[in-house]
Specification:
By secondary structure, the protein is mainly alpha-helical. The protein folds into two domains: 53 residues, no CATH class; 105 residues, no CATH class. Helix content is 53%, strand content 3%. The chain has five helices and two strands. A two-stranded antiparallel sheet has the order 1-2. Helix 1 crosses helix 4, helix 2 packs antiparallel against helix 3 and helix 3 runs antiparallel to helix 5. Bound molecules: zinc ion (2 copies). One zinc ion binds next to loops. The site of one zinc ion has 6 residues, from loops.
């Protein structure tokens, strides 16, 4: 199919109010002249390739600015993250992925522990440093998992993410006692 059969209307994306269309993960079909909310890389209507990034330099700069300020939001949301909502809002597969990553980092920390203790004998805040490192890595995995699904985590998702990471705090503290 190489012409517009009107199927694209089913995927028509609403204009986001506070962020650009591309930054919100929408894609554009230049042939159908429409922005769509669609997972694939080709138009569900005319089958041509969808555009995922702005074309103009200005547009690209704005896109980057929005992504960066959004990441900023991610980090600050994470910092006050633990404890507003009780319901689980993060999709199970993303939670699995994040927890696997944290467990992997913790087991690595455990393996390097003899080295860390010898190399930094006077540091009092090793537990903090390790925890920050592990959570930092988990944040990027978390955000990436959503980005791969062309979605953005909600405030509840971040709060839930905070709860997941806090669970591991004790485990890391124990290493340094
Ligand atoms: Zn179309
Ligand atoms: Zn199209």
């Amino acid at each position: 199919m190489t012409y517009c059969i009107g199927k694209c209307k089913n995927y028509k994306a609403q204009k986001p109010s506070r962020i650009g269309r591309y930054a919100a993960g929408q894609k554009r079909c230049n042939y159908c002249e429409i922005f769509v909310d669609y997972e694939g890389i080709t138009c569900p209507c005319c089958n041509r390739q969808l555009r995922c990034l702005p074309r103009s330099r200005k547009g690209k700069e704005r896109y980057l600015e929005q992504i960066i300020s959004w990441l900023d939001l991610v980090l600050s949301a994470y910092l006050w993250g633990h404890g507003t909502s009780d319901s689980m809002t993060i999709p199970d597969d993303i939670q699995d992925f994040v927890e696997k990553q944290i467990n992997l980092m913790i087991s690595q920390t455990e393996a390097y522990l003899p080295f860390i203790k010898v190399a930094f004998p006077y540091s009092k805040n090793l537990a903090d440093a390790c925890y920050n490192l592990i959570v930092g890595s988990a944040v990027s995995i978390f955000v990436n998992q959503y980005a791969m699904r062309l979605k953005y985590p909600s405030a509840e998702d971040f709060s839930e993410f905070g709860k997941i990471t806090v669970k591991y705090r004790d485990q890391i503290d124990k290493f340094f006692k």
